[in-house]
Write a structure and sequence with these properties.
Number of helices: 2
Distance between the termini: 34 Å
Radius of gyration: 15 Å
Strand content: 35-45%
Low-confidence stretches: 1-12
Helix content: 10-25%
Number of domains: 1
Oligomer: single chain
Mean pLDDT: 83
Order of helices and strands: EEEHEEHEE
Structural class: alpha+beta
Shape: globular
Length: 105
């Protein structure tokens, strides 16, 4: 199978490359699902987080994804987040953004 063969989806979103929904470009989002970049941008630009918890000295942004959130539930990330109700995002000591799904079906 070639580099882009099979059913692998490759695309570009703004300034990063995505394969099968995972950011593969080097940088702070490398290895994370594409939706992490979307939520991180919303946190930084609009203060989207519903809560902040602390892991040691690291702030962790907690985001609730309500069932009736039409923007998420019917948008670009609807399929991958359909059973997710809450996520946490943080920046690690090396500057990479990481995530954890806190609540889901």
């Amino acid at each position: 199978m070639g580099r882009n063969g099979g059913n692998m989806k490759v695309g570009h979103s703004d300034d990063y490359e995505v394969r099968d929904g995972i950011i593969v470009s080097p940088g702070k989002f490398e290895g994370e699902p594409e939706w992490v970049r979307h939520f991180w941008d919303e946190i930084v630009m609009h203060g989207l987080e519903d809560d902040t918890i602390w892991e040691g000295e690291t702030p962790v942004a907690v985001i609730d994804i309500p069932e009736d959130d039409d923007e998420i539930r019917s948008g670009k990330f609807a399929k991958v987040l359909e059973d997710v109700h809450q996520v946490a995002l943080w920046e690690d000591d090396q500057g990479f953004v990481r995530h954890e799904i806190l609540a889901g079906d």
